[in-house]
Amino acid sequence: MTSTIPTMHSAFLTRAIAAVAADPRFAALLAGGSYIHGGLDAHSDLDLVLICDEHRHGEVMATRRAFAEGLGELVGAFTGEHVGEPRLLICLYGPELLHVDLKFVTPADLDRRIELPAVLFARDPAAIAHRLARAAIAWPDLPPQWFEDRCWIWLHYGVTKLARGELFEAIGMLAFLREQVLGPLLHRRAARPQRGVRRIEQAGLDSDGRLAATVARPEVASVRAALIAAMDLYLDLRNDDPPERPAPTMPTALLDLLDQAGREE
Description:
Layout: H1 7-22, E1 26-32, H2 34-37, E2 46-52, H3 57-69, E3 73-80, E4 85-94, E5 98-105, E6 112-113, E7 118-122, H4 125-133, E8 136-137, H5 144-164, H6 167-189, H7 220-238, H8 252-264
Parallel strand pairs: 2-5, 6-8
Antiparallel strand pairs: 1-2, 1-7, 3-4, 4-5
Helix pairs in contact: 5-6, 5-7, 5-8, 6-7
Organism: Novosphingobium album
Protein name: Nucleotidyltransferase domain-containing protein
InterPro entries: NT_sf
């Protein structure tokens, strides 16, 4: 667990623990993310997991915004379907702004975790500790073929948008590619969990500036150079653990298309 907790975060956790302890629908409150990995600072989110009685989970889900409103001044909140997690309520509190993720789960959901959380409160500490001790803990790293099957299609999208003159669309694709492919593979190279582009700078994973070279300005030449840099970096990272079925004709076909787009300008 992090050795120091910012005052704002500490005050929120105190309120959250008290609210969970006072609500019989909840069995425990857990914390993950920076709270357990270190690096929790004034800019950090709080990642909290609320363990509900399985028979009352539906009730909790139906009233979770009201519960969240009881924890502080809620600026806004929305659910996490966009990340495939409908149990998640993503909250922003104020007036001193704090992002808090509240995930409402049942005890059975503790059996498979991506990390071992800290227990902030438990009605039955021994039962929670036992469940966590036997849980399967594994970060959801993706296999080489997952990246190969997607990377070239996403790059093709960027090339076609460049050819059409939709520079901001191509720039958006490059940001998406860094998050979904290049960042995770840089983490893989460093034997770290594949966490997108999180803390790439602090970990020194782009010391040669090759990821930075994929960041484009809204200019044709800059976007073209960034697309080529993204292809080159992916090919280099792919060599660390090659996919079983490399995409045929790539990158030649994509580079040809990029050259053709340049001649048509």
